[in-house]
Amino acid sequence: MKAEIIAVGTELLLGHVINTNAAEIARMLAEIGIGVYHQTVVGDNEDRLARAITTAIERPDGIDLVILCGGLGPTEDDLTRETLAAVLGLPLERNAEWTQHLHELFEKRRRDLGHPGGSGSGADLRGNDLPRNNLRQAMVPKGATLLPNTRGSAPGIYLHQERLTFVLLPGPPEEMRGLMREEVIPRLARHLGQNGGEAVLVSRVLRVTGIGESRVAELLAPLLEGQTNPTIAPLAHPGEMHLRITAHASDRERALDLNEKVARRIYAVLGEAIYGEDEQTLEAVTGELLLKQGMTLALAESCTGGLLSHRLTNVPGSSRYLLGSIVAYSNGLKQSALAVPGELIAREGAVSAPVAEAMAQGALALCGSETALAITGIAGPGGGTEEKPVGLTFIALAEGEHLESHRYRFSGEREEVKRRAAQAALELLYRHLSQRP
Amino acid sequence: MKAEIIAVGTELLLGHVINTNAAEIARMLAEIGIGVYHQTVVGDNEDRLARAITTAIERPDGIDLVILCGGLGPTEDDLTRETLAAVLGLPLERNAEWTQHLHELFEKRRRDLGHPGGSGSGADLRGNDLPRNNLRQAMVPKGATLLPNTRGSAPGIYLHQERLTFVLLPGPPEEMRGLMREEVIPRLARHLGQNGGEAVLVSRVLRVTGIGESRVAELLAPLLEGQTNPTIAPLAHPGEMHLRITAHASDRERALDLNEKVARRIYAVLGEAIYGEDEQTLEAVTGELLLKQGMTLALAESCTGGLLSHRLTNVPGSSRYLLGSIVAYSNGLKQSALAVPGELIAREGAVSAPVAEAMAQGALALCGSETALAITGIAGPGGGTEEKPVGLTFIALAEGEHLESHRYRFSGEREEVKRRAAQAALELLYRHLSQRP
Description:
Number of strands of chain A: 17
Oligomer: homodimer
Number of helices of chain A: 16
Mean pLDDT of chain A: 89
Low-confidence stretches of chain A: 115-128
Radius of gyration of chain A: 29 Å
Distance between the termini of chain A: 49 Å
CATH architecture of the largest domain in chain A: 3-Layer(aba) Sandwich
Largest sheet of chain A: 6 strands, mixed
Strand content of chain A: 15-25%
CATH superfamily of the largest domain in chain A: MoaB/Mog-like domain
Helix content of chain A: 40-55%
């Protein structure tokens, strides 16, 4: 099946609300092997909505599933139900059960609001019948199925018409999500089964660090060029690259197999540049290595200002291996907390390999950890000299008696330098731990 | 002008990445009076991208601005530049300056990676020329203007063709945002001016902290309801609220005047809840107060894990007042570095007001600063109890003999609790410093 998602709402079009629904629906459809070929956003405007529906129906790539999300509310500008019925030439029929349900819902709300001292909306509602507009929510195009919504007053709608399937969903994310999970996905999966379509679509993400986007593209060019099934989509992140492999197949086993074949070829080319898969972050993978090897970690950060510590502590349970970080921004704190000799700072400068090494040893001693990372550099924009320019950074790693340090020159603005330095330090520790015999 | 935004990328279509760019572009266009009428998402597929461009051009509502975002990278599946040129029948020409720039960028990256002892990636790159694919980023459709990108290798493209304007932007949000602000919006505003639109449009942002979104909306309801010129757009950020006031006028003076009148009314309602304007962040404003009052600051962070320190050190020049942070994730480090008595932790628990206060005093003593902030809490998801649930946080502020602490209960997941705790601590210091006589 080929799907189009039409999100309805002027607030989406103007950017006041971010269209998270479309992404979430697309991911849910992918799980049962339905690919999304188009996403559109249209405002609360009858003509444009009607044209968006017509465009979807007439697409030359043969869309056969149209999901409309939003515009099922009780206000005047909620038009999705009526517009779809008009485009398809179907009359709207009142659903007796949902009408009854709406009456009960309204009665209950009125009782709940009938507390003393209630002002405004509560008082306005008392003594009124169910507003006429709310009753529109019980209307269903002839031949369609009403999908009961347990989280709100707008039900979903599911409609097969010749080669096309239409699904209408309310816009609030938790209502959309509930209806998709409980009503729509099971129906679509059944429909696919009956029609013998491609049953599944499975993705796998390989996460790469320490190698640039264009270099990855070049190394993988022979693989990327011929890709059809699975597809390989490279995506750049700060200091990282994610390669998403996606296979279509008749069942999950076969899709996993297809992905595995391509993944093996990518591993053969990129090797240890791949540090993890799927949702594994570099901080989580490094944390697992620490845990597995029974090691604790201490940090001494200067130019990264706590960012490395922040990233590591984003991982739940990181307190099991991360003892802490000394963000020694001042030279005084480098001396008092990390016991870096003042004369070393005076002789070598705070941004130097010997000071980075002394910071790592100081963190090890203060925290009593097995390993330590230290970072000292010039994040900019000020503070650079010809000899020591902005972006110059030294990173040291200590483990017991073992001590190593490296020199880097990062480009970019202040926050970018911080990000790249934190990533490089994390990568250094990851490589150190993963290469241990 | 009527705009359509076409976001390009299979990762968007499949929902692996949420389309925040379209919303952000729509909001920026609205500020200069351009309405977005359609948003579309299309995958990295030449035929479908070409059809999406054609559809935009042929819309019956007369779209005259088409913004394409994404697909300008160096990999094989980045097709936006080539596809637009093909649809419009324009040849691509090499931009000499950007070609030179790409060579320099690549040369610089190669040098930066050339540190001794570096393994893998660094060595692989040495001796290679600029990859052929990267050079595609210097190609521009005939008659178009190249918009230099200071944050990445893909430049933007700006093209007028008869009644239509096309803008091409790279997909990474910070690159898109930079080019929109610095290149696209000024050009579009000039273009609108030449075509008889309102000559200027001036925005001013009031930044609010310590008061919820719905409370702000309630307090400002009378002002928000009648707004036409200037408009007032409230935008929620984690722990903050930004109110963007935007006036259209024939000249800058008049627009500033209109904004000033509305700003005064907002200040009268929200008063000291407004901590800054425009690009001033809470960390920058607080830093300025520290500088002005000749004070230095030390931090003791537990549950925020370095985030507060990271935020403060994002401000250029913060080393003049921030001495450092002790991220005391383990109880051992709370004792060894911050001199928190072990029996106090045993008696009160690490997450308690007395421990927060002792941490603040310890940071003051260790760093020799005039002020200190300390944060201890339970970020979750584990570690909560009935008595001390996830989200419970204590924040202490010390200045010489002055010592105060506050209890909070933050909602949300781990990273959200960290964010809210860091914001609350910063706000506490800001209020303390700003209320000094």
